Amino acid sequence: MNDARLSRLREQMPELLLKTDPADLEFYGRDWTRRWQPAPLAIAFPADSAAVQAIVRWAVREQVGLVPSGGRTGLSGGAVAARGELVLSFERMNRVLDFDPVDRTLTVQPGLVLESLQAAALQHGLIYPVDFAARGSCSIGGNIATNAGGIRVIRYGNTREWIAGLKVVTGSGELLDLNRGLIKNSSGYDLRQLLIGAEGTLGLVVEATVRLTDPPPPSNVMVFAVPAMEALMEVFAACRRRLSLSAFEFFTDRALEHVLRHGAQNPFAQISPFYLVAEFDAGSEAHEAAALGVFEECLDQGWVNDGVISQSSAQAAALWRLREGITESLAALKPYKNDISVRISQIPRFMQAMREIFEREYPDYDIVWFGHIGDGNLHINVIRPDGVGDEAFIAECERVTALLSATLARFGGSISAEHGIGLVKKKYLEGTRSAAEIAVMRGIRQVLDPHGILNPGKVFDVEA
């Protein structure tokens, strides 16, 4: 605590928990990317919105950057503090503040873990439906910052569809109360939606009011073994036509191999190059007949060569593990990740173009694909080969990512579907957004963060 700026912060806020131990700086200064050496000034743990406002005003006076921190499960470098910033951890702001049974909303603090939010909703017989594999560690504040989507976007949409209101601290320390839980509100600009997906560069979320909904009907899970990439969208079309889908996911044989090594059980006797996971409404004879009908149609057309339907909740969980366990199974390998999206109608042509790039540029690399094919979102994981150093590996991956970005631009896609731009994807932003759009974004950022202290360096560099 020898830094004069921290001493002044301590004098101003004697009750504020601050950590400067090297192990804490290392832990809180990074996210899952592991590509930057953490070097934060300190870690601050505010307990309420007033404390956040006071920290922001201190940061303005001292010209210290602030990096908001939740579960740090991001994959774009959005929570990295590598240039002497103060990390603002919302771990202590993790409470459920209110439940409104008429509006069917929960008001929560940003540090609440998604799984805890889901559990709180269930206590009232309702659900918060946005869901993904990192539910046990990611926070709602981080989900809002990246407009996280997850595995059930087909039915429920992204995070932004479920945010009824936000309280946000701007880069000047002002507290904005956005939308106030209203369903209809045409009184000017919807700043709430502007803040969602902004990666903490426009304001710090200190409170969120989330909408809840009824639990879904009983569901089944079906996994298809698919012999050819060209058949993936044919199976999707058949399932969407005959079933009430809540999720439709895909992964490759390489992904399956990694997740099986990690303890999952293979329901198939033979390996296929592609697999699809469909979750759909069940619970009646008509639903069961529809599912069997889809499978028989796909089998007759040659679009699948095997399949399995869950017969219990335990089997459904085991089948979902084949898809949800992929990221965890790859974590120790520290893959280079791309999180991209195109319109659903463009998926077949884009995937063919992408495969041609990888076969040409990555002939000796292990490439693991999976993703939310039902909403056009694909995740690409490149595994570092033995004998290739980290710097050379990243340089090679970024060379190929530039080619991928150009291909995405040709198809009207996005270099980041749900993980944000952060530090990792900054150089590719112009492939997704026009120069005019980026200029507008810079102007908005200047208004809401006039001193340039909010998550500096993320999304794009602020011009002097």
Automatic annotation (TrEMBL):
The organism named in the record is Dokdonella immobilis
Q: Which Pfam families match?
A: FAD-oxidase_C, FAD_binding_4
Query: Gene3D superfamilies from the entry?
Result: 3.30.465.10, 3.30.70.2190, 3.30.70.2740, Uridine Diphospho-n-acetylenolpyruvylglucosamine Reductase, domain 2, Vanillyl-alcohol Oxidase, Chain A, domain 4
Transmembrane region(s): none
Q: Name one GO molecular function term.
A: FAD binding
Gene Ontology terms: biological process: respiratory electron transport chain
For the FAD-binding PCMH-type domain, which residue ranges apply?
36-215
Keyword Flavoprotein applies? yes
Q: Does the keyword Flavoprotein apply?
A: yes
Query: In which family does this protein belong, per the annotation?
Result: Belongs to the FAD-binding oxidoreductase/transferase type 4 family.
This chain belongs to the protein called: FAD/FMN-containing dehydrogenase
Which metal ions or organic cofactors does this protein require, according to UniProt?
A: FAD
User: Which terms are listed as keywords in the entry?
Assistant: FAD, Flavoprotein, Oxidoreductase
PANTHER family (alphabetical)? D-2-HYDROXYGLUTARATE DEHYDROGENASE, MITOCHONDRIAL (PTHR43716:SF1)
